[in-house]
Each structure stands twice: as C-alpha cells, then as structure tokens.
Design brief:
Radius of gyration: 24 Å
Helix content: 55-70%
Largest sheet: 4 strands, mixed
Number of helices: 5
Strand content: 5-15%
Shape: flat
Order of helices and strands: EEEHEHHHH
Structural class: alpha+beta
Number of strands: 4
Distance between the termini: 66 Å
C-alpha cells in the first residue's frame, strides 16, 4: 500500500495491471472486485505515472454494459454524450453524482431496515419474500418521486440562471433587444 493508504496498481505498456500491494498481476475483474469491496486504489501508468483510474473504471463499465443486463439505455448514453463540451457539462456531472449518492443512501436505509427484520428470527421465509415484493415497487416509487422533485429543482435553477443572465447582460445593447433586456417585438 502506498504511503497515503491508497492501493497502487500499475498499468504496463503490455496492458497488464500490477497490484503493488499483493505483488501480482491482476485483471479488470479483480479491479472490479476492489470497487465492490470499497477498496481505495489508484491505477497509474507504469511509464509516465499518469493517473489512469477513471479510464480503467470506464473500461469496467463498458464490459458490464456489453454484458447481459445493461444499466443505461442507448438514449441515456446519447444524452450524456451530448453534454460533453456543453456549457452545462460540469453541472450535469455533479447532478448525476448527487442523484447516485441519494440512491445509495436510500438503498443503505432499506438494507438497514431489512437487516432488522432478518435479525428478528420470527419471520418465516415466505414473510421475507412478501416483504421484498412490497419493497421493490415502493423503492421505485420513492426514486420516481425523488427524480421528479430533482427535475423540478433543476428547471427552477435553470430559470433563475437565465433570469440572472438577462439581468447581468441587460446593460449591453444586443441586436434585437430593447433597452432593459426585452426582446424587440419588430423581429
């Protein structure tokens, strides 16, 4: 392990990954397991010392998406691509990250509640199955409500930003604008 407590993985020009903690070559599946185990790690290019962690994580996502049950639709991926180079790119990344974090927190609370039920040995397996059948639609409903609220907040924020931009630029004479920033109605 590196001095800062982060596990170092070196990627060599032959595309092999070397785990410096275990002194062994590892695969992308092994790196995926590190992620699932919540291990903190960094992948660096053995030659240039460039940080390749994001690139390796994207490779893992690509492999998962190419497998049997993709998480993202083609339309969703196309929309993500459209945000690259867009003025809202940074905001979109933050928005997605916060939504995923909220989902993780909801999931953790559900797991905590489920654990309390499991620890109470009074529940028979059929009661547990019934509980899980109720939880899935409820979780879907909670996420739908959360996403709708998030969408509304995002639209409000966008409206506020547009209003602030109009106010800020109203002092500049633009073609087709009346003084005060209102569109010229002769256009």
């Amino acid at each position: 392990m590196a001095a800062n407590g982060m596990r170092m993985i070196k990627k060599y020009p032959n595309r092999r990954l070397y785990d410096t903690e275990t002194s062994t070559y590892i695969t992308l599946a092994d790196v995926k397991q590190l992620v699932l185990d919540h291990e903190t790690f960094q992948v660096i290019d053995a030659k240039s010392s460039e940080d390749l962690t994001r690139s390796i994580l994207l490779q893992i996502i690509l492999e998962e998406e190419s497998g049997g049950l993709p998480m993202f639709s083609a339309e969703m991926l196309a929309n993500v691509i459209r945000f690259y180079g867009h003025a809202m790119q940074g905001m979109m990344g933050s928005y997605l990250e916060k939504n995923i974090q909220a989902f993780i927190e909801i999931q953790a609370k559900l797991q905590e509640q489920s654990k309390a039920l499991i620890d109470n040995k009074a529940f028979a397996p059929e009661v547990w199955t019934q509980f899980m059948n109720v939880q899935a639609p409820m979780m879907q409903g909670m996420m739908t409500n959360y996403i709708e609220q998030s969408k509304n907040l995002f639209v409000q924020m966008q409206d506020q930003m547009q209003q602030q931009a109009r106010t800020m630029f109203s002092a500049f004479p633009f073609p087709g604008q009346q003084p005060g920033g209102k569109p010229d109605e002769t256009d």
